[in-house]
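Lab notebook, design round three. We kept the backbone fixed and only want residue identities now. Task for the bench partner: fill in a sequence for the structure below.
Input structure tokens:
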């Protein structure tokens, strides 16, 4: 596995706990559009571009905003 794939798998195991921490920190709404449906954890700086799994690099986005963002 590449380093990116290893980081991705490790992050997948932590996602639920991180989501709860983000909801407490930011509220249960998309950071871009304010939607409260189909929320996901998003890396502000994508992992593939060297972003970390630290809470300072994470936000909550709805699925629509997250898919629209892609790896930008």
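Proposed sequence:
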């Amino acid at each position: 596995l590449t380093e990116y794939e290893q980081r991705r798998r490790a992050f997948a195991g932590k996602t639920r706990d991180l989501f709860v921490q983000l909801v407490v920190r930011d509220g249960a709404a998309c950071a871009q559009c304010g939607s409260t449906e189909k929320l996901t954890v998003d890396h502000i700086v994508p992992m593939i571009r060297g972003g970390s799994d630290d809470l300072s690099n994470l936000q909550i986005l709805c699925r629509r905003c997250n898919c629209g963002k892609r790896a930008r």
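Keep this in mind before ordering anything: The mean pLDDT is 86.
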